[in-house]
Structures
1.
Amino acid sequence: VCSTHISQLPTEVLLRLFRYLGPEDLCRCGQVSSAWSNLSKTGSLWRHLYPVRWARGDYYHGPPADLNQEPDEEWVKSLQVEGKAYQEWDEDADVDESDESCEESLAISAAQREKELLNGMIQNLLPAVGSSVRSIVLAYSSTVSSKMVRQILSLCPNLIHLDLTQTDVTDSAFDSWSSLGACHSLEYLDLSGCEKISDHTLRKLSLGLGDLASPTCSEKRAERRNKRLKSPPSPISLFAEQFVGPKVKIYKERLARLGAAPCSPAHLWVLDASKLADIEDAAEGNQRGVFSATEGLGFVETQAAGDLCCCTRSRKRALRTGFRTSYWQQQYGFGEALCGHSTCCTGEKALRTLGGPQCESINTRVHTGAEFRTKCSSEGQWCLERDNRTVQSNTPRSLRFLSLSGCYQVTDMGLRGLSQLGGLPLLEHLNLSGCLLITEVGLQVLVSACPALNDEHFYYCDNINGPHADTASGCQNLQCGFRACCRSGE
Ligand code: FES
């Protein structure tokens, strides 16, 4: 009987198996060997992080949309008790621990576990997988600090969902959003009950969401790239004679002897990789170091021989030009070989990015809610991306949900800041309950920059006669005992 030890399984198979595991099991697997440790730090395994739940034995790791948004009241209460016990213990650490009741010590150890988990995540996990992380839920955490949040946000630039409900964070937590487009992909931000948050955070948020008025560098680059791909193939750049190496000269002489000379400059198709920096195949070529003068000459020969692109060159020629061509041909057969050059492969078959032979070769990126998936062309299935490359939403200022409930320091200045740089065109849900210092004027400015706002999900103080007064929902904090409200106690 032939048996295979698990260590002999190919990496792709192991990764597929790892996808069935939760965070606890993945951490255990990471302790088996260095190979497993590396594999367990694959970005696609860590899309959604719930450290507060994980510290209490709930290892849910799916998208937040599949989770009940309203947490169980009992659960919230127990977290609040834990937080209080932990803070008291933390402030007065020299108290004789033997005096603590059993219940209190359990609460303290749960909070300590949470803090250790957060520190471990920041130091060991996020540096490896941060750019793949899409959601972080830290709601009701009693141990998360502004410094921790700042570190997390700078390690996770592609966040879509951030929940900091009822935490003790301050404005400094969002320092990494102080540059344009720093939280470009953010769609969901819950700061309910974060009482230390002020207008500074809203200004940073607005800046981080990007500027709709002037296109960002990445948009400009994408625009240039699209323009190039749409334009008919034409020589991109000619090497000036003084830059052509001796090998190229020898090949040119040989071509001349074969009758293809004189090569008119218009037929020279030597790609200058530096000018293709924004075309992915060139970037990939650069990474692999395969854009050599010889390969460039392969291009020259093909064109000179009759305007055929390198996709269709002969097997003999393909073998001569080395790894790159033979790789494509191994993958896709000789008859249908694709070179992968955006400039000569058009339509569906053009290869865009190369992530690995088994899955990512021909891919289509689709954004479904809070999840990015890559179509696996070889198997016709959807599978999660396995690499750790940076992915960003195409639309800046894609915020759809914003809750500042109980953030009583926020003023009209903050709302004005949010309305700048193009407003919030996709915002549907806005909760400003308990924002005691805002006025009708500030609300009006913001609402005029939020065309998608749904009145049913628009909450603000009942005492303000603001926009959509008849249809908007009122203050949500009237019945809430622990969030700011001008009518609390009535
Ligand atoms: Fe005014 Fe709640 S903040 S009614």
2.
Amino acid sequence: MFCFQCEQTAMGTGCTGCAGVCGKSAVEAGLQDVLTGALVGLARTCQTAAPTAKTYRTILEGMFTTITNVNFNTTTTQAMVDKVHAEAAALSSTPAADYDMNQMWNADEDIRSLKSLILFGMRGMAAYAYHALMLGKSSEEVDSFFVKGLSAIGEDWGMDELLPIVMETGKVNLTCMALLDEANTTTYGTPVPTTVPLTVEKGPFIVVTGHDLKDLELLLKQTEGKGINIYTHGEMLPAHAYPELKKYKHLKGNFGTAWQNQQKEFDGVPGAFLFTTNCLMPPRKSYIDRVFTTEVVSFDGVTHIGEDKDFTPVIEKALELGGYSEDQHFTGINGGSTVTTGFGHGTVLSVADKVIDAVKAGAIKHFFLVGGCDGARPGRNYYTEFVKQTPADTVVLTLACGKYRFNDLDLGTIGGLPRIMDMGQCNDAYSAIQVAVALAKAFDCGVNDLPLSMVLSWYEQKAVCILLTLLSLGIKNIYLGPTLPAFVSKNVLNYLVENFNITPTSTPEADLKKILG
Ligand code: FSO
Ligand code: SF4
């Protein structure tokens, strides 16, 4: 096998041998390559046959399947390959040939690097487009770009042709994140600042993780009045801030921290766990009986909830396990008993005047966006220390699951606003961009001239598309860690450093000194 799409890739170069660091087997990795090659074939077919809504949905499902920590199951991946082939056959009696991914893995390293940025960025974007679609929203610009980008993977092109498509991936992902933001806020309302307890109350409960708000809503409806409490986990935490989800009294709080701690945190817990997206780690024997998947998430031996969205097996398992006999007062990584969320662009921009006045009066000296993924490898404590060391006259905006390193810290307030503000899931990077653009407008300057620094952590492919979006907007001086992607070749890195001054994170002390200079 060969896979180097995520931050924990073996030796920082690539997973080879019989399994990846994430637990994906060589057989599954090979099948995911076959699936990607089939998707390139489907995109090629679309150049001569008009794609339908079903074609685009198939592309999104196929791409989402290959994101890190989504699918470990060769049976369901093979079924997805068959589905892609069937779709190509439905479009044309002479569908185009599949692409052999080994051609890409064995290409010149700069070409492989640019194609990887396009492919991995599109995988991340596919997840966002999929969530928007589940809420009834799609975009012609986003859909057609998947055909263009996938076709490019199969072309024998040079850097001059591929580089603009890398940037276009970022640009289209901005449209895609805006689409998802619109889907979320029109369906569930504008997020409001919300304090979320970390206590798990006694009695039966279900923990919902991943990014899909629609799945959470369906589960909340199906569990209403059944004496079962619902808790969020990982990237589902921001759900508490949406009025139309918040209204359910049995949506109680948040369980656990970021994804990489699940094997430890789920062990021995008398509740059921529902995975709506990544990040699934191979469940241990001790709790695999209480894990459930839905959508494209799949693991051999784990009960899957299909398209009918009948959550009865999850509900029955929660009732059978019965939950804790007494309330359990869990804490965050730093000992806090609550976390806050709900500071999306709607909330932050509603107090924009207050924020602008605070900056003008010198009460707020600097903004940091400390956001992105968490991960298992050492070195991620950088982000905790960085946030702890930010001066009292600065604001920390955050998003995605990396925030669990510091979101239970009480850093006080500035002008009535908390110093740490959680903007939401990784796709809510859209909110951060909206706030940055509004501030730049208010101060009549460019985003790069604002007292704003982005200190990002990456792990999987959604972070890749977000990074490309920031670059496509011309945002410079991003600090990126904990390590640089293995798929960025030396020449591509030089290009990113020269044009965007991307800087690898060093130590919190040195980086803060450099930023606040
Ligand atoms: Fe984290 Fe996993 Fe949202 Fe990623 S849960 S690592 S960036 O999936 O997608 O933030
Ligand atoms: Fe390795 Fe990451 Fe690929 Fe898993 S997803 S096989 S850990 S590079």
3.
Amino acid sequence: MNNDIKEILYSKEDIAAVTKKLGTQITKDYADKKPLVICILTGAVLFMTDLVREIDTYCEIDFMDISSYGDATESSGQVKIIKDLDKSVEGRHVLIVEDIIDTGRTLEKVMELLSHRDAASVKVCTLLDKPARREKVVTPDYAGFEVPNEFVVGYGLDYTGFYRNLPYVGILKPEVYAEN
Ligand code: 5GP
Ligand code: MG
Ligand code: MG
């Protein structure tokens, strides 16, 4: 699995450090707000679980699954709701947690859905921001790293369902795509 990686962009230590920094900022910003932290499945699950451990105030967790990618490295252009939230966001301070914002389609869809549900506030925290390919006007309130225009895997991000369990974020070797 590690042999399929051309270059490590962010090590386990880099990710831990940036997550701690984001958590500290979020702790300050949400001190009296008891935020509802929403993890966008599946990619953000590793980041969210590490991030909430750096948030030192009351918060709740919920999950939403919105899919715009099949197994390919390019978005299908269609955004589907696979799993909605269990909790109500009404009157709540919502913090959406994403693995990466690429075209912005997924986030735009989530924002649109939530806009009808009377949250007190909605903000976005993403581990990775890839602004080069943005199609929609969406900007994260908190971002770990700005990534180059490359398809990355690891720490939650997959290619054909694999590589999510890599502890770092890296770029796949081109020959790995050629095999598929
Ligand atoms: P968007 O809707 O912003 O184009 O993409 C959002 C979703 O597409 C992310 O949550 C992620 O699951 C997937 N995605 C976008 N860019 C990448 C990438 O470079 N690598 C991987 N593995 N997934 C990506
Ligand atoms: Mg995702
Ligand atoms: Mg994916």
4.
Amino acid sequence: MATSQFPLHPQSRYANLNSAIRQPTEFTCFSYDNTRRYHSDDSSLRYYYTPHLPADLNRGFDEFEKHDDTIDEHLDGLLRALEEYERTTGEIVKADVVTWRGMLTKIMSLPFDLRNSFEMNATRFQDTIFIEEHHPFKMSSQRPLDRRGKLMSFWGYKFETLATLSQTWDDTPRSVIEGRGNEVVNNEAQFCSIVKTGFADVKVVIAGEVDAIWDERRPDSPTPHNYVELKTSKRPTSERDDINFERKLQRIWAQSFLLGVPRVMVGFRDNDGTLLSVEEFFTRDIPKIAKRSGRNLWDGKYSIDFTTALLQWLKAAIPSVEETEGVVWRIRYREGMPGVEVERTDEKSFLTQSFIDWRKS
Ligand code: A3P
Ligand code: MG
Ligand code: MG
């Protein structure tokens, strides 16, 4: 089958493209509640409220209500929100690429993390390329976590519970604020923001989970909303830890940048899962941290230029001719490969029938 490749080297090829980047603007959103039911509103959005320190991130691990990530959700929530938005407003959303934020985070991070293999599926429908994660690859490539691995993954969700409220603070009783350490941790619930953005001439619609908001999300308040990304990280205690954290900042930055989330709150913990401190980072300033350190680990501008070039290549590699509508293409990168490749498959489209019917009506 025909394969086309986007070479990763030489890196200079993608430097100084000076890609104009648009400010992401949210145009719709949706929520999953804690039983994973879909709601076309912001009901699962949480409010940031500083946690009490120090805190034990281990507490409640055995009661964790964990989302079953063996289920392949494709682009279902995103397509449903898009369809509902279009039905309500009468506007058909025009984009070159529609995807989950996680797919673009992988691409933006690739030049600085060449060991991070991935597979995605792409399909073109009405001049838009829809991209999803290739779920079977994700399942087969991730090592099963041992108890410590599961516990460490829990720490991230526990921090979200400790650092947020389900209502604004003035609507929340003191006892609820102080009782957050006892709350059952559940990661089925999600609030997802959907934005229009762009990389140079490539128009992109991205959906992604937003952990919390700083103040309030009023329907009439101008975007970007004061959203907050929450992260946990080991408190650096050595030069090696500093380097690891600086690398981690690349992914954190890319993730937040893509949705236009302006602020990241990092909960620093020790090796035993005690939350020690919380530090605020402004997304727009994070690339300067990597620049100033002089370590040369990553570069924000390069990340944007690289992603722009890759998306432009993808648009050309998945041709907009009638016969290719609904064809599924595999986008693949493996450690050691000289580039990202796209290959035609004979799989069936992963778009929902409801979305296809709506667009064809
Ligand atoms: P941390 O990132 O604080 O460790 P996100 O930060 O993207 O909102 O993700 C929330 C949490 O999900 C993470 O918190 C982590 O606990 C968990 N998580 C995300 N990706 C994971 C992965 N690949 N493996 C295990 N846990 C993961
Ligand atoms: Mg999150
Ligand atoms: Mg987070």
